[in-house]
Amino acid sequence: MSRRRKVGIGVRAAAAELGAWGTAMPLLDPVPGAPAPASGCVEQRSIAGSGGDAPCRGGALPSDRPAGAGAWSAPGLLGENGLAAPADLPLDAYPALAQRGVLTSEYPYSAVVFLHAVFPNGASAFGTGVIVGPNDVLTAAHVVYAPASGGYPTSLVAVPAYISALGWEGSPFGFSTAAVTIADTGFDPDDDGIIRAGNGGPGLEGSERDIALLTLNKPLGYRTGWMDLDPTFKQGFAHLTGYPGVYGRTLTDDVALAYDAPNDSFTYITWFEAHRGNSGGPVWHYGPSGRPSVVGLVSSGDPNAGRGVAAFDIANSYDNILYWMASNDHLLA
Question: What is the model's pTM?
C-alpha cells in the first residue's frame, strides 16, 4: 500500500513498535534527580554555524562535511555561548558521525526551540520543537504528553535560541510559556516507553502519530522567523536540529540522508546521530520555495547506538496541521 494513501492522524489511538534498527525509544531528556517519564529518548549531532557551513541544497552536503565520514572535533562542538563540549565526552564514540554547534540566534536556527515540560507528578523533561508560525510550535506528542506522569504538563516553556549558560531570560529572544493546542496521545498505547516506527501497512501507529501543536503566549515567531512545511519531500539530504543533553543542551545540527518509508507514513532518520533531548526537533531542508522547510519531527531512536530511527512525516497530516495552526490565529489580535 502506498504511504500516500494513508489517512491523516486522529487525536487518539495508535500502537508502538520496535524499529528495524533496534529498540525505538522516545527522544526525551529527563531531568536528573527528578521523577522521569517512563519513556527514554534520543538526541542528535551538530553543525558549525560559522562561515564555512553551506546550506544543504539540491542534495549537496556542506563542503566541510565529507559524505560518509566526519571526525569529531572540539572546536566544532562549540555553540554561540562559546562553551566547549563536556570534558568527558568520548570524541571518538561515533567515528562515522559529525556534529557541530550552531549559531543559535541566526535564522533558521533561531526558529528551533528548547522545551521544558513539568508534569503533574513532578516529573520534568526536556525536548525540542520548531516555530512554524507567529505563535505556532510543532513538536513530538510524547514531549508534551506522558500518561505515567499524569498526562499533559502543568508547566511548559519554549525558549528559542536557548543558551544554557544564560538561562531562559538571558537567551537572545527570551522565552514564552506554551499551551498544548492538540496532541495525538495514541503514539504509545501500552505506555511501555517504546514507539513503533509504523505498522508496515494501512492504519497509523507509533511515530506516524507522534505530533503535537503548541500555542505560544506571545508571538515570538515575528522575532525569530519560522520554518515552512514541505509535504512533498520523499528523500534527500536534510538537517536534524535540536538540544541534546549529551552536549549540555547546546543547539546542535546534523546533515544526513532522510527518506520516507515505502509502505508507511514516517520518515527514516537512521543515518542521523540522535540522543536524549532531540525529541520533537525538526528534520528540515531547503524546500521548493527555497526557504527552510520542515519535513519531519524526531520521534524515536536507538539510545544505545546514538542514532535516530523514525520521524513523524509532515506529509502524513499536512492539511490537519494547517487547520490547527489557523485555529489559534485569533490569539494574535
Answer: 0.74
